[in-house]
Amino acid sequence: PEAVFGGSEVLPERKEELKAPEDYTVVLLNDNYTTREFVVEVLRLVFHKNQADATKIMLKVHHQGRGVVGVYTWDIAQTKANQVHALAREYGFPLRCIVEEA
Ligand code: TYC
Question: What residue stretches are annotated with the Adaptor protein ClpS core domain (predicted)?
């Protein structure tokens, strides 16, 4: 499609240019103290995972040391990481997650 306003480049020409940059991966890290149940609960609360997916991710992290939880915009990824750390602090667990460029 051509530009809309008098041929000036006011609007992006392709739909892809409108897409939010969902380029940040939230990665959950294993530790020896956080309970499995708490990790599953955090994955449900913060990342809106169902019981089956949350359990699958928790077990992957438990066995492999780390695991991808999801891919988000920078702001949303940071917010979710902060929510994980706030909940972990509140309940006295050392659970950590990191944000990585996808
Ligand atoms: N390794 C923990 C345990 O055995 C469980 C756990 C899983 C902790 C995933 C953190 O991100 C994590 N209780």
Answer: 19-97
Question: Running DSSP on this structure, what letter comes out for residue 92?
Answer: T
Span 40-76, pLDDT tens digits: 999 999 999 999 999 999 999 999 999 999 999 999 9
Q: Whose CA is nearest to atom 5 of ligand 1?
A: 36
Q: How far is the C-alpha of 52 from the C-alpha of 55, rounded, in Å?
A: 5
Contact 25, 102 (CB under 8 A): yes
> What are the structural domains of the chain?
33-101 (3.30.1390.10)
Query: Angle, nearest 10°, between helix axes 36-47 and 51-64?
Result: 130
Both tokens of 54, joined, read 């949350």
Does any ligand 1 atom lie closer than 6 A to the CB of residue 84? no
pLDDT score of 7 more than 80: no
